[in-house]
Amino acid sequence: MKRFAVILGGASVLALAVAANVAADTEDFPPLQTLGPPPIPADNPMSEEIVELGEMLFWDGRLSGNGTMPCSACHLPDVGWGNGTPISFGYSGNQHWRNSQTILNSAYYTRLFWDGSQTSLEAQASAAAGGAVGGNGDGSMMEMRLRFVPDYVERFNDVFGTDYPRVSQAWNAIAAFQRTVVTDAEQVPFDRYLAGDQGAMSDSALRGMELFNGEAGCIACHNGALGSNQQFYNTGVPTPPEFNEFPEFQLVMLWETYAKGASEELYRTVTDDMGLYHVTKRPGDIGSFRTPSVRELVWTAPYMHNGVFATLEDVVAFYNAGGGEEQTAELEPLNLDDQQMADLVAFLEALSMDEPLLMEPPEIPETATWAEFDQ
Ligand code: HEC
Ligand code: HEC
Fold it and tell me: Is 121 in contact with 107 (CB distance < 8 Å)?
């Protein structure tokens, strides 16, 4: 359809040649394309009210153990909805062990977290607020806190029809809010280019697109509208220095390994995050992580499950060298020259919005005594 439109529109021969090239190189993989609206589960329908409630809850520390660790503590709009550090801080007093992922476009994944251990935003929110190095909240305590906020009681009643808030409803509302934190295609050079604006991407980015789809082979994993096939690979991402230098990192990594049920032997010998293995317990999955989206990277540094790369140049240099040691992804050195590496970076940049998606924190309603409820 799109190709026809280009032909009928009388676009340049060059554009047709590029399109034909891309098609030839990428026929085995779903092409990068403009994101449609995110899928909405039948049992959690969208409405203005649920999104507004979810936005408040995303910023509300009541949904954490000590009342001070809302989702927004680690997913800040002005650092790309992650927290901007290589490895996230954790619940008070703890380190986390992984890079805080962006929630931008998380609505499109069916496998969430770096190891894909959750399959819906609703379940993910519960795991995030309850996890010991995340929100560390107890479900019944968090529910009780919501029950003591007259404004919430009214809003939950409005949206869900129950007399009092239930904590599972809070996860539904947060998930609904996150389904609105998505890319606006009109702001993305690549999407404008696909929509027919031939000048939307620089020549360098256009060359980078050809490399991405062809010689550099990125499309094999970063494909489809999201730029992720949601599969898992061990690409040999190096261990960050923090893991070797600070006991806080080592103890949390060991604890996670223990808590996720690894064998005693692995627990005694492990020196790095085992990724997908924690979910499947298949030895071949050790060190495999979910392919992340290549959208919005300009706003979401640093990169990889452990944030070991600060810039897109670092990431491209990693792939140019054929990935890391002890990988199972079978990446080969790309032998790109400096210009080609710069072109690839320019293309990755063209997959991000021109401006970051910012949002002001909403006002959080007050807690009341029960005597104050009916006033
Ligand atoms: C203490 C910091 C912290 C807090 C608090 C926190 N997160 Fe996260 N979040 C992270 C980290 C780190 C990851 C990656 C964890 C992993 O892969 O194991 C993550 C991953 C995610 C993802 C997965 C994105 C993807 O691409 O798969 C979503 C969605 C998310 N968080 C939403 C939330 C929500 C909703 C809350 C509040 C209920 C929350 N987070 C609270 C640090 C945090
Ligand atoms: C074999 C599948 C595969 C191929 C091929 C591949 N990637 Fe990746 N990519 C991944 C996986 C898996 C990760 C996450 C690795 C980790 O964190 O351990 C990743 C991470 C990234 C990231 C970091 C994103 C983030 O949010 O942290 C970027 C950028 C990236 N890849 C770009 C590229 C480029 C450019 C190419 C081509 C030169 C490429 N990838 C080829 C699977 C692949």
Answer: yes
Paired tokens of 316: 């491209």
At 26, is the pLDDT very low, low, confident or very high (cuts 50, 70, 90)?
low
pLDDT of 92 reads 84
Instruction: Give me the pLDDT at residue 93, please.
Output: 82
The number of residues making up the chain comes to 375
CA angle at 97 for the pair 109 and 141, rounded to the nearest 5°: 75
Q: Closest-lying ligand to the alpha carbon of 349?
A: 2
Gap from CA of 170 to ligand 1 centroid (Å) = 16
The amino acid sitting at 58 is F
Q: Which atom of ligand 1 is nearest to the CA of 290?
A: 27
Tracing tokens 């153990």 back to the chain, one arrives at 65
Q: Is 100 in the pocket of ligand 1 (CB under 6 A)?
A: yes
Residues 150-184 have pLDDT tens digits of 999 999 999 999 999 999 999 999 999 999 999 99
What does the pLDDT read at residue 375? 54
Q: What whole-number distance in Å separates Cα of residue 263 and Cα of residue 309?
A: 30
Give the position, in ligand 2's atom list, of the atom nearest the Cα of 334. Answer: 38
Peptide bond into 38 cis (omega under 30): no
Sign of the C-alpha dihedral computed for residues 4, 10, 16 and 19 taken in this order: negative
State if residue 257 touches ligand 1 by the CB under 6 angstroms criterion: no
Residues with Cβ within 8 Å of 249's Cβ and at least 6 positions away in sequence, in order, are 87, 95, 97, 242, 243
* Mean per-residue pLDDT, 308-333: 97
327's CB contacts (< 8 A; 6+ apart) are 233, 234, 235, 236, 287
Q: Is the CB of 334 under 6 A from ligand 1?
A: no
Residue with CA nearest ligand 2 atom 9: 291
Atom 42, ligand 2: residue with shortest CA distance: 291
Mean per-residue pLDDT for 326-332? 95
Residue 30 and residue 114: Cα distance in Å, rounded? Answer: 22
Query: Which numbered ligand comes closest to the C-alpha of 209?
Result: 2
